[in-house]
Amino acid sequence: MKVAIITDQHFGARKNSKLFHDYFLKFYNDVFFPTLEKEGITTVIDMGDTFDSRKGIDFSALSWAKCNYYDRLQEMGVTVHTIVGNHTAYYKNTNNVNAVDLLLREYDNVTVYSEPTEVKLDNLNTLFIPWINQENEAYTLNLVKNTSCVCAMGHLELQGFRVNKQIVMEHGLESKLFEKFSLVFSGHYHTRSNNGTVFYLGNPYELYWNDVNDTRGFTIFDTETLERTSIDNPYRMFYNIYYEDTNHQTFDTREYEGKIVKVIVRKKSDSKKFEKFIDKLYSSGVHELKIVENFQIQESEEFEAFESEDTLSILNRYIEESEIDLEKSVIQRMIQNIYQEACELV
User: Fold this and answer.
1) What average pLDDT does the segment 57-62 reach?
2) What are phi and psi of 167, to 5 degrees?
3) Backbone φ and ψ of 2, nearest 5°
4) Contact present, 186 and 178 (Cβ < 8 Å)
5) DSSP for residue 238
6) What angle do CA 197, 199, 203 make, to 5 degrees?
7) What angle (nearest 5°) sits at the alpha carbon of residue 232, between those of residues 177 and 230?
8) Domain spanning 2-232: which superfamily?
9) Is 127 helix (H, G, I), strand (E, B) or coil?
10) Do strands 198-200 and 193-194 pair parallel, antiparallel, or not at all (unpaired)?
11) pTM of the model
12) Residues near 110 by Cβ (< 8 Å), separated by ≥ 6?
């Protein structure tokens, strides 16, 4: 049996932005639902963070999610297994009060898992693992140790995997706790990464600037062969354009309509030509345009920043090569947290 696995959908994200919900809908209309129909899939596993805010839901966002996602799944006869993630658990120390349970009770095709549960997907014994917190950690890890399930699916915070392209998680549980399973699938981190056994499948679409040029989508999983197939989302929201005296007359701007664009200036010999280039972008209907004309950090003889490095890599390397007496890993973690928060504000 083939099932679809999707995670970290974050309905209501970016303060219930219409721009982003329209972007989400294009993915669901053009990619997700057509793939379910084509493959004859009648089971969807949602591995957490279905809604964005654990404190509340915008009524418009809830209406959008029901009309464009849950109603359609119900009409298609699709069974949905929904695992509670950290964004859908109201309290940080328990999953008992959670958004998916409270908001989706009208759907008899949706089952919510707020505690670890052994579930049979066709003939495959699978352990569903919701967000691990103070209340359920001991019980969850004991079940992980003693279960006979071949596969695990959950919303895990494990060390050594990429949160995004810039950041590798340095805290959380050790992945070796789950090495008994043939396969482990997880949500929580929005970028794809794996160690051969544990697979972070990534979320369906870009949400923040640190997602730019990072392939997103969902996964089809065959419960008989244990084969997984990544279905990529071809649609993007964020674009970096590198300006190098680029000819505005031949530059095609059509794909930037309704998008968030950053122009990084590498070479600008003629200000008037540059202004015409920017005017053309504006006239194409970009939603938001940012211009970065001086993007390199100040260099010295002792430290050189390379263009191939991203911002966080430069900062981490700068700290590592510095002669400060403080604990460098602590400073790097602080910088990573600040950088992550900054990316999510713009």
Assistant:
1) 95
2) -120, 130
3) -95, 135
4) no
5) E
6) 175
7) 40
8) Metallo-dependent phosphatases (3.60.21.10)
9) strand
10) antiparallel
11) 0.86
12) 70, 80, 82, 100, 104
| CA angle centred on 285, ends 31 and 245, rounded to 5° | 105
Q: Above 90 in pLDDT, residue 201? A: yes
pLDDT of residue 314: 73
- The two most distant CA atoms of the chain are separated, in Å, by 69
Q: Is the pLDDT of residue 181 over 70?
A: yes
Instruction: Cite the DSSP H helix spans in the chain.
Output: 13-16, 18-27, 33-39, 59-65, 71-75, 99-103, 137-146, 271-283, 311-321, 328-345
How do the domains of the chain map onto residue ranges?
2-232, 237-295, 301-346
Average pLDDT, the chain: 92
Q: Compute the Cα dihedral for 298, 275, 345, 164 and give only its sign.
A: negative
Helix 311-321 with 328-345: angle, nearest 10 deg:
160
Q: What is the pLDDT of residues 260-319, one digit of tens each?
A: 999 999 999 999 999 999 999 999 999 999 999 864 545 455 555 555 456 776 777 777
Q: Among 318, 321, 14, 49, which Cα is nearest to 186's?
A: 49
Amino acid at 170: E
Each residue's pLDDT tens digit, 69-119: 999 999 999 999 999 999 999 999 999 999 999 999 999 999 999 999 999
Q: Are 11 and 51 in contact (CB under 8 A)?
A: yes
Residue 2 DSSP SS3: strand
At residue 5 the predicted structure's pLDDT band, cuts being 50, 70 and 90, is: very high
Task: Assign 321 a pLDDT band (cuts: 50, 70, 90).
Answer: low
In our burial notation (b when 16+ CB lie closer than 10 A, e otherwise), range 96-135 reads eebbbbebbeebebbbbbbebeebebeebebbbbbbbbee
